[in-house]
Design brief:
The structure is a single chain. The protein is of the alpha+beta class. The chain has one domain: Glutaredoxin, CATH 3.40.30. Helix content is 42%, strand content 15%. Strands 2-1-3-4 form a four-stranded mixed beta sheet, sandwiched between helices. The longest helix has 12 residues. The chain is globular, with a radius of gyration of 14 Å. The protein starts with a strand and ends with a helix.
């Protein structure tokens, strides 16, 4: 199995997820989420396949999220506006995002990875 893995190398959660994928022999195409952030169209596709709310894709604990005051703005933003904001800066995106083109996981929870990527 091969997955695309959007990550930030300094992120501990991303490192744990990557280690899990390596230990389970999952072929990983790693993309640096800040240097190569997914486009708005890619994010829309990932969001639709994930079954999650779009606001779950925001890195709410990030400094950039707080600087932009997104906590108060998200409720009144359209889907396309949210996607454009996410695509504008990889640091705004919750990470890692792992996908095989059909399934999508956001963040890292071992039990979720077991179920999805084993």
């Amino acid at each position: 199995m091969s997955v695309t893995f959007y990550h930030y190398p300094k992120c501990g959660t991303c490192r744990k997820a990557n280690k899990w994928l390596e230990e389970h022999n999952v072929d990983v195409q790693a993309l640096h989420i800040v240097e190569e952030p997914p486009s708005a169209a890619t994010l829309k596709d990932l969001y639709e396949k994930s079954g999650l709310e779009l606001k779950k894709f925001f890195n709410t604990s990030g400094q950039k999220y707080r600087e932009l005051g997104l906590k108060d703005k998200l409720a009144s933003m359209s889907e396309s506006e949210m996607l454009e904001v996410l695509a504008s800066d990889g640091m705004l995106i919750k990470r890692p995002i792992t996908t095989d083109g059909q399934k999508v996981t956001l963040g890292f929870k071992e039990e979720q990875f077991e179920k999805t990527w084993s």
